[in-house]
DNA sequence: CAGTGGTCTAGACCACTCT
DNA sequence: GAGTGGTCTAGACCACTGT
């Protein structure tokens, strides 16, 4: 069996896109129907395929366009103030400064979601404090960041205020007797749920990374769980490693 | 305007899926047409939406099913043999051992792809050595791993052999005078291209992480660029951090 | 206003799976 | 053979964009 017509059209368009044609937009659906002698349904199936691959974006009443966005560097290790040892990973800070960063902050009490409760080691549905942020660069949302804390860790501190904390929330935690000494990072790759699509204004075919940080104190208590949602079309996650024993990597 | 019919149906199905209905499969398209009084096109548009969200998988001639796969832990830092300091991040090694790991290896000379050439610091299209691997667990492909080396770094060494190198390729490089002391990690989140879909047997709505490792020697030369492709439906990337100054995190 | 993409219908044929 | 999802057609109306 040869591939279906819509897949052949998708392959042809994919090739032309790679070659740099269509830099000013694709032909209209009607023109493609004519050029390839296919029904509108088949043409649209091919275009939808490319939309879902993240190669195209469409604008109602206007047309289809090749998608290309600049990626911002997201460097979890910069949280440690050690970016200087990894020059390649340092541009996020500079880029963010150039790109007019802003954030919306909202602090509230919520029932811990199951996965957060499990990581925090609290009962399912126990009330915890969440600090929700949407971070923008140049007015474009590029990260959701929800930080969960057990109540005793943050109540009565500046971390409860819906405003930026200049000295850092982790510093506030430390002042309150909950200094963290270790963190576990997990990165999940998936398609966004409808709420994330809405809050981040995501187009079709845009996957996200869910970066979950679990912060431990020296005696092993979890005092912080962060869930950051990073759209794949506008973020690249970077971190550096310096190791004298790198040559021992198993391969 | 109210949402279109297909979006309402998608929302209804999404909710039922979350509630655990449909654990044994969804109703057929014909049954959904009947239940919701919609045309087959509209029903299929809703189902296709959920397929592209990675919530469902379909089997021709059989039906639609809720998708759920176990995630394997991918821990770049284990490359350094330091996983022991991060107990939570150690299960990948154990899981891999339990899951009957295997890999196909192929070594060849190729013209460096543009992004690899840029990272290696060689001319565009210059001939380099690539070591391509597909790693399986229990027979399921869960990672593509292409390692690129300048010719002088690996020619005449065991790294050129299409077989596992027990002592590790990085050890081989070190023996050849190219010990690495530092690495830069980049993680890109995107939809897979058709070749990746084929080689990894990816279903629709399955995004991938592209993990690019750039390995430096002490004097700053790049001797290794690795591109690992990790399907999001079967991998979670983990790494741990231990820091006395964690409390200084800006927030 | 003409042209665009977004939604929706009814109907058809096919390859495939399961019994 | 009956039922399933996969492909494809022709046609319609809509909201939206540009001029």
Helix/strand order of chain A, N-terminal first: HHHEEEHEHEEHHEHEEE
Describe the main β-sheet of chain A briefly: 6 strands, antiparallel
Number-wise, the strands of chain A total 10
Multimerization state: homodimer
The stretches of 5 or more residues of chain A where confidence is low (pLDDT under 50) are 80-92, 244-251
Kindly estimate the percentage of residues of chain A that lie in beta strands according to DSSP: 25-35%
- Termini separation of chain A comes to 40 Å
Structural class by helix and strand composition of chain A: alpha+beta
The helix content of chain A, as a percent range, equals 25-40%
| Overall 3D form of chain A | elongated
**Widest sheet, order of strands of chain A:** 4-5-6-9-8-7
Number of helices, where a helix is a run of at least 4 consecutive DSSP H or I residues of chain A: 8
**Could you tell me the radius of gyration of chain A in angstroms?**
23 Å
What is the typical, i.e. mean, pLDDT of chain A? 87
Describe this structure in words.
Two copies of one chain form a homodimer. Chain A is α+β, with helices and mostly antiparallel strands and 251 residues long. The first copy, chain A, is built from eight helices and ten strands. In chain A, helix 1 crosses helix 3 and helix 2 crosses helix 3. The longest helix of chain A is centred in the first third of the chain and has 14 residues. Chain A is elongated and about 70 Å long. The first copy, chain A, starts with a helix and ends in a 9-residue tail after the last strand. The C terminus of chain A is likely disordered. At the A-B interface, helix 7, strand 7, strand 8 and strand 10 of A face helix 7, strand 7, strand 8 and strand 10 of B. The first copy, chain A, binds a DNA duplex (19 and 19 nucleotides) through helix 3.
């Amino acid at each position: 069996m040869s591939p279906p017509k819509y897949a052949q059209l998708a392959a042809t368009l994919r090739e032309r896109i790679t070659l740099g044609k269509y830099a000013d937009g694709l032909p209209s659906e009607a023109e493609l129907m004519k050029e390839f002698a296919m029904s509108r349904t088949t043409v649209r199936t091919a275009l939808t395929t490319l939309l879902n691959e993240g190669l195209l974006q469409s604008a109602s009443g206007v047309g289809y366009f090749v998608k290309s966005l600049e990626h911002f560097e997201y460097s979890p290790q910069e949280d440690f103030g050690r970016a200087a040892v990894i020059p390649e990973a340092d541009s996020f800070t500079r880029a963010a400064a150039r790109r007019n960063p802003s954030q919306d902050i909202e602090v509230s009490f919520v029932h811990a979601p199951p996965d957060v409760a499990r990581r925090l080691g609290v009962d399912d549905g126990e009330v915890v404090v969440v600090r929700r942020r949407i971070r923008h660069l140049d007015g474009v949302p590029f990260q959701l960041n929800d930080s969960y804390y057990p109540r005793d860790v943050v109540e009565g501190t500046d971390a409860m205020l819906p405003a930026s904390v200049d000295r850092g929330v982790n510093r506030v935690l430390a002042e309150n007797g909950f200094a963290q000494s270790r963190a576990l990072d997990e990165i999940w790759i998936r398609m966004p749920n409808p709420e994330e699509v809405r809050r981040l204004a995501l187009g079709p075919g845009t996957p996200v990374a869910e970066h979950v940080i679990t912060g431990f104190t020296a005696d092993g208590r979890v005092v912080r769980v962060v869930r950051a949602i990073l759209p794949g079309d506008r973020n690249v996650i970077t971190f550096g490693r310096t190791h004298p024993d790198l040559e021992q990597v198993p391969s």
